UniProtKB/TrEMBL annotation:
Protein name from the UniProt record: Bacterioferritin-associated ferredoxin
Domain BFD-like [2Fe-2S]-binding: residue ranges: 2-52
Record InterPro entries: BFD-associated_ferredoxin, BFD-like_2Fe2S-bd_dom, BFD-like_2Fe2S-bd_dom_sf
Keywords: 2Fe-2S, Electron transport, Iron, Iron-sulfur, Metal-binding, Transport
Taxonomic source organism: Rhodopseudomonas telluris
Length: 67
């Protein structure tokens, strides 16, 4: 499935940036850098974070808000 239409990144590409043997992205923004591109419109960020969360990456979780 295409996750980022601006850079034509698939969910497989995103997972490869998270895998210890393929990449070491620790945030949604770092996924783009690991894959040699940059964020453009930002619509993919929610989906990238979801993939990170599903993969068990702590960085995929949004930071807690302090009220």
């Amino acid at each position: 499935m295409i996750v980022c239409s601006c850079n034509v990144l698939s969910d497989h590409d995103v997972r490869s940036a998270l895998h210890p043997e393929g990449g070491n992205a620790s945030s949604a923004g770092e996924v783009h850098r690991c894959l040699g591109c940059s964020r453009k419109c930002g619509r993919c960020m929610h989906t990238i974070r979801k993939i990170m969360t599903d993969a068990g990456c702590a960085a995929g979780h949004a930071p807690a808000r302090v009220s």
